[in-house]
Amino acid sequence: MIVLGIETSCDETAAAVVSGEREILSNVILSQLDDHRPYGGVVPEIASRAHVQHLDGIIERAMREAGATYGDLAGIAATAGPGLIGGVMVGLVTGKAIAASASRPLIAVNHLEGHALSVRLTDGIDFPYLLLLVSGGHCQLVEVEGVGAYRRLGTTIDDAIGEAFDKTAKMLGLEYPGGPAVERMALTGDPTRFSLPRPLRGRPGCDFSFSGLKTAVRHAVAGLTDGVPEENDAADLAASFQAAVGDVLADRSAHALEAYVERHPQDRVLVIAGGVAANGFLRTRMEAVCADHDFRMLAPPPDLCTDNAAMIAWAGLERLRFGLTDPLDAPARARWPLEEVMRPLP
Ligand code: KG4
Ligand code: ZN
């Protein structure tokens, strides 16, 4: 059983073919970084146009590398949201056209479910597990009990974590995309030079907050001579920022581990996924938290943490096994919380 996945919800135009035996037969990603870099962030209209221009060729390449024809597919899985609506529409309508012409089922995949299930593709683990989903648009702790069976324990009450990385990068004068730039810069920085807040640390519950941290970075930059960070200032601020984010993730996740383990004492696995999970410093930090709580930590390899179509094809396969397919008028959605793809929990 093989499925074609299509991902166009942000600034990656991607297509992949994945088998039910967890083989990635092809995984093609075209990054639009160079198109957006002059603007310091993703420009939705430029993203939509680039998806229109490149998607057909990317799909063709994914099919060719997999050695597959449309007739071989068990289904076509396309991201239907959440994301930049123009891009989502391009991918979804393309998926629908292939599904209609090849008479194959369409699976309209929630992008967050793609991230949530990707570790089952890479590591083949069983349900349940606790998920820390950290991406450009989200920061959530979720109990993953099965396909479409998600219990959200906490979420950000203001900014997403990736957004905090991207905005911090901008204030430090680093290039877009911000996350990898901050991580690189932090390698040579002193994480104790700037005393930044750890929002919500020590409070009950599992919610996150990052806007105060972002503001503190802005004030720290303003407090530098001329308000312009020199190379060593930027490195120290990046390291201080990353240390604060690590402390926040550790504190909030520890609460979630404790809540989760009451319900699942035998299944002590924490999965981190989403673009920010590509961050080596945060992976190491979370590994230590897991060791303290007698949990195993798993994360997809960095290139499957950031956006890709293999995870969309895989989520499609997982849903297809339950007969969860979608009609050809399935809507593209800018906003689509993970709770809304849930099957009712007992
Ligand atoms: O999952 P993703 O590729 O797209 C969304 O679904 O949002 O996540 C993108 C986010 C961006 O904010 C990017 O800066 C961040 O992930 N990111 C990182 C790293 N690589 C990507 N953040 C911190 N460290 C990284 N190495
Ligand atoms: Zn993503």
Show the helix and strand layout.
Blueprint: E1 2-7, E2 12-19, E3 24-31, H1 33-36, H2 44-66, E4 73-81, H3 85-102, E5 106-110, H4 111-122, E6 129-134, E7 139-146, E8 149-155, H5 161-171, H6 178-186, H7 211-222, H8 231-263, E9 269-273, H9 280-292, E10 296-298, H10 302-305, H11 310-320
Parallel strand pairs: 1-4, 4-5, 6-9, 9-10
Antiparallel strand pairs: 1-2, 2-3, 6-7, 7-8
Helix pairs in contact: 2-3, 4-11, 5-6, 5-7, 5-8, 6-8, 7-8, 8-9
The structure holds 5'-O-[(R)-(carboxyoxy)(hydroxy)phosphoryl]adenosine and zinc ion.
The site of 5'-O-[(R)-(carboxyoxy)(hydroxy)phosphoryl]adenosine (KG4) has 19 residues, from α5 and α6.
Give a brief outline of the structure:
The chain has 346 residues and is of the alpha/beta class. It has eleven helices and ten strands.
Structure notes:
By secondary structure, the chain is α/β, with parallel strands linked by helices. It has 2 domains: 2-117 and 304-341, Nucleotidyltransferase, domain 5; 127-299, Nucleotidyltransferase, domain 5, CATH 3.30.420. The protein has 11 helices and 10 strands. It has helices at 33-36, 44-66, 85-102, 111-122, 161-171, 178-186, 211-222, 231-263, 280-292, 302-305, 310-320, and strands at residues 2-7, 12-19, 24-31, 73-81, 106-110, 129-134, 139-146, 149-155, 269-273, 296-298. A 5-stranded mixed β-sheet has the order 3-2-1-4-5, with helices on both faces. Strands 8-7-6-9-10 form a 5-stranded mixed β-sheet, with helices on both faces. The protein binds 5'-O-[(R)-(carboxyoxy)(hydroxy)phosphoryl]adenosine and zinc ion. Zinc ion binds at residues 111, 115, 135, 274-275, 307.
